[in-house]
Amino acid sequence: MKDFRDFALKSNFLDLAVAVVVGAALATLVRSFVTNILTPAIAAVGGYPDISSLELKVGGAVFRYGAFLTALIAFVMTLAVVFFLLVRPVQRLRARSARKEAESARECPYCLTKIPKAAKRCAACCAALEPAP
């Protein structure tokens, strides 16, 4: 039991659980927006009572492509929300921190290891270094 508790508290288990719950809530919210607001607006412009009720009958088969279009719109909107609210800001933060890291480090001219700018000796090869400008 202690091993499981350590796993749950020290790993990304809790972060993953929160992400799954928030993702499910986001999917429900987007699905509701698409079903109740967006597709009726598209249907009104197109002259249909409801886009999800669009279907094609071939022989005895019924292809309900309106329901598929509704699901596709919900998927694309969920993807856009995740990209613009999560992925893009995280990418910008990582790029900013990488820039700061690059500004605070330099390469050892002898072994090419990254070292702090203020270092007087390389930690990898122990070479004496000139002061950084």
From TrEMBL:
Residue intervals passing through the bilayer: 12-30, 62-87
UniProt keyword ATP-binding present: no
InterPro entries: MS_channel, MSC/AndL, MscL_channel
Subcellular location: Membrane
Keywords: Cell membrane, Ion channel, Ion transport, Membrane, Transmembrane, Transmembrane helix, Transport
UniProt keyword annotation of Nucleotide-binding present: no
Tree of life domain: Bacteria
Membrane-related topology note: Multi-pass membrane protein
Major localisation: membrane
GO terms under cellular component: membrane
GO molecular function: mechanosensitive monoatomic ion channel activity
Pfam families in UniProt: MscL (PF01741)
Name of the protein in its database record: Large conductance mechanosensitive channel
Organism annotation: Thermoleophilum album
High-level lineage: Bacteria, Bacillati, Actinomycetota, Thermoleophilia, Thermoleophilales
